[in-house]
Amino acid sequence: MSEQTPWIAYSFAVLRAVPHPHLGTCVPVGVLLHARTAGFLGIRVATDASELAERVGDVDVELLSRYLHTLAAICNGESAGGPVALLPPSERFHWLTAPRSDVLQCGAVHGGLCRDPAVALAELFDAHVA
Is the torsion defined by CA of 36, 64, 58, 51 positive or negative? Predict the structure, then answer.
């Protein structure tokens, strides 16, 4: 990217597995990034069953993997994500990051600036999950 590429504002949240919601301990398993002005909504998640079992051994790993695949389908606007996947990207991002007391939760939404949202998503995944 050249220095002439404009800065793009984005919001992101870390997806986390919470094996025991009543205890509150969590393990990062993915990242969502929304850059509204660039029309970008992306997700990157750890879905390999053996990796998830190593990270979050105290849950049904197959079920967690299915949840993560469904969140990715919603984020990507795929029909496998159900009716929520049909919403505009901003609404999907807000739905995906809404607080919930489940085994799969989103952390706080943070903001940043980048020149390429896809690159920023990869860097955030590497920094928070990998």
Answer: negative
- Return the closest-CA partner of residue 89 out of 75, 101, 106: 75
Enter the pTM of the model: 0.91
Euclidean distance between CA atoms 24 and 33, whole angstroms = 23
Task: Report residue 67 as tokens.
Answer: 């949840």
CA atoms of 81 and 22, how far apart (whole Å): 27
29 in Cβ contact with 52 (< 8 Å):
yes
* Averaged confidence pLDDT in the chain: 93
Neighbours of 47 (CB within 10 A): 17
